[in-house]
């Protein structure tokens, strides 16, 4: 078998340096367009803990390699406890409605039921969402998207893309990209709600896509 393989690969050469020929390539880092901070919201244990107490920054990174290092060493989405959240936001933006970069914006959200059958797809959807955000393929205007959020709840898992403003045309582009990233079927809808409305009880989403 190895003889046959040797014969087949005899004439092959690698056009460029790779990790196979150049050990420096092992340490190369591929910078991302922006720096990103991962945040975690731990579940509330007693009622005296408010939203701000539960939310903590975990780590900031700026390269593809650091992203994978972090991704592979934190609990996968489907092992997070109920009532916890992951948030990945551009460095300097807090994942809160109150942050001045979020306050005029809102979020596109895809919610799917938290049943055992869907547990296996959570990690896949969340990873595809993360990659679209750090690769900035989710947006045309590189400043429209501030971050991505994962909420683990009993009734539903929610993935939300937080936008800087509520400009209809820009929102639609981001919404359409999100549908593609998550590979949603026609009957799987996402909705948009401004943070102003999220902060009011009983608000209905402004856009359904
Ligand atoms: P949630 O975690 O988005 O939804 O907000 P959940 O857990 O499904 O609960 P529900 O009440 O929407 O059904 C839960 C609560 O956390 C909100 O009602 C707010 O009190 C608080 N909260 C959430 N966010 C994203 C913020 C925020 O950005 N700022 C502040 N001050 N509170 C927030």
UniProtKB/TrEMBL annotation:
Domain of life: Eukaryota
Coiled-coil annotated residue ranges, if any: none
Protein biosynthesis as UniProt keyword: yes
Keyword terms, alphabetized: Initiation factor, Protein biosynthesis, RNA-binding, Translation regulation
InterPro entries reported for this sequence: TIF_eIF4e-like, TIF_eIF_4E, TIF_eIF_4E_CS
Molecular function terms, GO-annotated: translation initiation factor activity
Family to which the UniProt record says this protein belongs: Belongs to the eukaryotic initiation factor 4E family.
Name this protein carries in UniProt: Eukaryotic translation initiation factor 4E
Gene name, Swiss-Prot/TrEMBL: CDC33
């Amino acid at each position: 078998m190895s003889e046959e393989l040797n014969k087949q690969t005899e004439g092959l050469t690698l056009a460029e340096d790779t990790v196979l020929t150049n050990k420096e390539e092992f340490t190369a880092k591929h910078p991302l367009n922006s720096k990103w901070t991962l945040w975690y919201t731990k579940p509330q244990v007693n009622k005296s803990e408010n939203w701000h107490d539960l939310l903590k920054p975990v780590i900031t990174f700026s390269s593809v390699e650091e992203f994978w290092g972090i991704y592979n060493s934190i609990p996968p989405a489907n092992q997070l406890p109920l009532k916890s959240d992951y948030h990945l936001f551009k460095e300097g933006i807090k994942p809160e409605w109150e942050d001045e970069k979020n306050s005029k914006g809102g979020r596109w959200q895809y919610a799917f039921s938290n049943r055992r059958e869907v547990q296996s797809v959570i990690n896949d959807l969340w990873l595809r969402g993360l990659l679209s955000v750090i690769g900035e393929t989710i947006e045309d205007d590189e400043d429209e998207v501030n971050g991505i959020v994962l909420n683990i709840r009993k009734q539903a898992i929610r993935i939300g893309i937080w936008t800087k403003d509520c400009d209809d045309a820009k929102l639609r582009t981001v919404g359409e990209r999100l549908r593609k990233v998550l590979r949603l079927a026609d009957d799987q809808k996402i909705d948009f709600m401004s943070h102003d409305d999220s902060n009011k009880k009983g608000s209905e989403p402004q856009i359904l896509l």
